Amino acid sequence: MTTINKVKKVIPDEAIPEVGTKIVNRDGQDYLLVNDAMFTFYQRSMGEFTPFFLGMRDERKILGCRCTKCGIVRVPPLATRCPDCNFAPTELVEVGDVGKMLSTPPITYFASSLFQEQVPSGRGRIVLEGADTALSVNFYTTKGILVPGIVNRGTEMKVVFKDQRVGDITDIFCVPASELTSEQVARKGLLVSEIDWESAAEPDLPQQGPNDRGRFASALAGLRALAGEMNQCERAREDIADWKRNVHVKTAGGQMTMTIDNGDLTFEPGLVGDPDFVAVCADPMVLQEGLAYKGSLTQAMMERRLWISRNPEFTTIFKLERMARSLARSKKV
């Protein structure tokens, strides 16, 4: 949720490869890779939706259209004339930025490169105060990783505006109103920077049982062995190349630190250094099974057996799952 104040390009510089070729080895066979491109640029008009997008961008408000005859308010302003009233004219009106979720929404964890920066995210239809129709919009949580059950049908949601807006529907998103203070809910045009995204409360761990320490020791040994194998697997190393993270892992039986350092993965007992994020799982075997390709870390998060403190760090979880898959495939050769 961090806003970076810089000019954004349609195609970011880091996505543009240099002219050249390279040889990669897969399963003992050399393959020649050639950098190339296929693209097109175009402009599109927002047409009659222009006031809606400018309202969000310049004034931090949500506009709808109200029929001058029947009074129905549609959001976004889909029609300049009402289809239910023999095409009576409509007028632009401002609606509230708090509303109710119309139905229990889906959550997306894996997306194409075009939407990669938005996931994990939910997308639902919100009926805002003063509106008669629902607005389709993304939503997030301030409580760590977004999982099913946080937002359901009838959940009260608050619209949040990005600090840097361009006139697009992604200029806004929603969060559950229950996660905000009453002052934030009442504030018109609430900004991303006015919300605390870094202080998600960690879930409580069960009281340590008689077998938890032994289970933790076994899981730590297993994870260190897996990390050793991954560090010797070129394909697995590529999955975390140019990636650095220090992760504090807390379980019922003990605590450990997972470090990702540009292709190297290590596990150490205890909490070392300042974490980029925190992972909590009562059973450390959840993490071991995920990295052994015997389970899914994503599924564990969806089932609330694994929690991470920062939603954008799902990218790290995704990379770890790719490492597990790469190691498993290398053993089949």
Q: Major beta sheet, specifics?
A: 6 strands, antiparallel
Helix-strand string: EEHEEEEEEEEEEHHHEEEEHHEH
How much helix, percentage-wise, in residues? 10-25%
Backbone structural class: alpha+beta
* CA-based shape: globular
Treating each run of at least 4 consecutive H or I residues as one helix, how many helices? 7
Query: How many beta-strand elements?
Result: 17
For the record, give the distance between the C-alpha atoms at the N and C termini, rounded to a whole number. 41 Å
Total number of domains:
2
Mean pLDDT: 92
Radius of gyration: 24 Å
Point out poorly predicted stretches: none
Beta strand % = 25-35%
Describe the protein.
This protein is of the alpha+beta class. It folds into two domains: 48-194, no CATH class; 212-332, SCP2 sterol-binding domain (Nonspecific Lipid-transfer Protein, Chain A). Helices cover 22% and strands 26% of the residues. It contains seven helices and 17 strands. The strands form four sheets. Strands 7, 8, 9, 10, 11 and 12 form a six-stranded antiparallel beta sheet that branches. A five-stranded mixed beta sheet has the order 15-14-13-16-17. A hairpin with a 5-residue loop joins strand 5 and strand 6 (88-95). The protein is globular.
Produce a short descriptive summary.
The protein has helices spanning 50-59, 182-186, 212-231, 234-239, 285-291, 297-302, 314-332, and strands spanning 21-26, 29-34, 62-67, 73-74, 81-82, 88-95, 98-101, 107-108, 121-128, 135-139, 156-161, 172-176, 244-250, 255-261, 264-269, 277-280, 307-308. The protein is of the alpha+beta class and 333 residues long.
